[in-house]
Write a structure and sequence with these properties.
The protein contains 16 helices and 5 strands. It has 373 residues and is α/β, with parallel strands linked by helices. Strands 3-2-1-4-5 form a 5-stranded parallel beta sheet, sandwiched between helices. Strand 1, helix 3 and strand 2 form a beta-alpha-beta unit. Helix 5 packs across helix 8. The mean pLDDT is 92.
Length: 373
């Protein structure tokens, strides 16, 4: 059942700030229903996961024989990717760590990357984006007034990872994505970065710089890497016991890693977008999905989550300084940034897109792939 007035899930804390949210007769939202139906809480899952992980590690090592590396791992300096690098090293994988440098790294993130790669003995490559092109893309998505302000980064990351995988003939890309902290995320908040029709329309309409070298990653390029090059993205954190607080403690103890204050806040731009811009423009609070996952996993009560959500997600004493930094970095005035924030909210369906086409393509691919296994 879809609703028009404000409503919040009776089990988790997802609400109608996702305009496409639906609820069943018990008041449970589709997000937590789908998450729990995925089997994430299956008490037999851990033993199955251990066997799956063992087979995955064996496949990765086998594919890397005679090559410089067994796999590519994306690294940001954040918890998920850093902990993945740590456990992958414990399993004896020979990795090349790849970081997408989009110019927004916090000092803590840069330090964390250096400490992780040095302490674990992992080779490291940085894929540096053309700043003029990237800045223009970021401004275009801000002016489009959609939640996908991070799409320019989200499309460049897989492009960079697959570039290095092909360069070194590596068949596996290890991703820090995981169900334990990212199992719930509304599509309306974070539309598909691989939709190049949507991506190009936003840039043509609101951008001003011609893109000559920006690494895009649409479905055709993805299928080329998957089906022709045989490159696969895997998610090992779904196959190990993963709890962020314990992971942070391990990283601090073993690698002198430092926490940076919030999920994905290793990037100053991401911190601004997720904690302030989306909250002020759309009412979107990025803590809701993570708290909802923790509720589903039994790590926090709904009442505790609601109490946490009473606090605003940004620091009111430092936000003015943060906005000045963002405006200066984007080479616009403070006033122009505020005008962009004040624009009426829009969503991906307000612009030309290939949502139906991509859904058909990927649903067909998943059915074929599942049958072939």
């Amino acid at each position: 059942m879809r609703v028009n007035s404000y409503r919040i899930c009776s089990r988790c804390v997802m609400d109608t700030t996702d305009p496409k949210i639906t609820f069943n007769d018990e008041g449970h939202c589709a997000h937590c229903i789908d998450y729990l139906n995925s089997g994430v809480n299956d008490r037999f899952r851990r033993k199955m996961a251990e066997e799956q992980l063992k087979r995955l590690i064996e496949r990765i090592k086998r594919s890397g024989k005679g090559k410089d590396y067994d796999g590519i791992i994306g690294i940001s300096g954040g918890v998920d990717s850093s902990y993945l690098a740590y456990i992958a090293k414990q399993f004896g994988l020979r990795l090349l760590a790849v970081h997408l440098d989009n110019g927004w790294n916090s000092e803590t993130a840069v330090s964390n990357i250096k400490k992780i790669t040095a302490s674990l003995g992992i080779d490291y490559q940085s894929y540096v984006l053309n700043w003029d092109e990237f800045r223009d893309l970021q401004l275009a998505f801000l002016k489009a007034s959609v939640p996908e302000a991070e799409t320019p980064t989200d499309v460049a990351i897989p492009a960079a990872l697959h570039y290095y995988a092909a360069e070194y003939d590596v068949k596996y890309i290890l991703s820090g994505g995981n169900l334990a902290t990212e199992g719930i995320l509304p599509k309306s908040w974070h539309y598909d970065a691989k939709d190049l029709k949507y991506f190009k329309h936003i840039h043509r309409t609101f951008g001003s710089t011609r893109l000559s070298g920006f690494p895009t990653f649409g479905y055709k390029r993805e299928m080329f890497y998957k089906l022709i090059k045989g490159i696969e993205i895997v998610y090992p954190l779904d196959l190990v016991p993963y709890e962020r607080a314990a992971a942070i403690a391990t990283l601090e103890r073993s690698c002198e890693w430092k926490y940076y204050g919030g999920k994905h806040h290793e990037s100053r731009y991401t911190r601004f977008v997720q904690s302030y811009l989306l909250y002020k423009k759309f009412g979107i609070d990025y803590r809701r999905p993570e708290l909802s996952v923790r509720i589903c996993l039994g790590g926090i009560s709904r009442d505790q989550a609601l109490e946490e959500l009473k606090q605003i997600p940004y620091n009111p004493t430092s936000i003015a300084e943060e906005m000045r930094y963002v405006a200066k970095k984007l080479e616009i005035s403070d006033e122009e940034l505020q005008q962009i924030i004040d624009l009426p909210a829009k969503w991906f369906w307000d612009y030309p897109n290939d949502d139906k086409k991509l859904s058909l393509i990927y649903n067909t691919y998943r059915r074929i792939f599942k049958k072939s296994k």
